[in-house]
């Protein structure tokens, strides 16, 4: 601040970002961010480029309804992950949808996935740190939870960190993930990888 900065960009961490945003509001400093915002009310000095969690949850529900998921496991890593998906827990897409919720980290992926397998749950919503995607997918292989019965829906934008499509190409389970696309693109990306679905959830205008 002493050097006379004109604006602040970031950070992307939801908790730290909220703290920085509060400081910017107090000091009248423009703040441009791209993070999950748990308090989406209007902020005078802040512009958030991240898709709203409300829109994302609508997309998750639409996919679950379309695929008729009636028994689902939610695996989340960070504490705010469950808060982020609370709409799915409070109001599932259908009243008959059964939810099994577990928190997991790289050290407990196998244990949690094993419990889900024992309960014969084949539809999973996964909210994990993209940096740990390799460990999560490796646990899937180790437990042989990669056959045609399983469908994994990732709620974080993971493609840039780990090529999930490459993983899906050599396995049999279904994978759905979401991405942000520029609406000005004349030709939208197409994907021909078997068992792999890239869902376009939100468009930048």
Automatic annotation (TrEMBL):
Keyword Ribonucleoprotein listed: no
Statement: the UniProt record of this protein carries the keyword Transmembrane helix: yes
Compartment list: Membrane
Pfam families given in the database record: ANF_receptor
GO cellular component: membrane
Gene3D superfamilies according to UniProt: 3.40.50.2300
SUPFAM superfamilies: Periplasmic binding protein-like I
Record domain Receptor ligand binding region: where: 5-176
Keywords per UniProt: Membrane, Transmembrane, Transmembrane helix
Protein's UniProt name: Receptor ligand binding region domain-containing protein
Species for this entry: Diploptera punctata
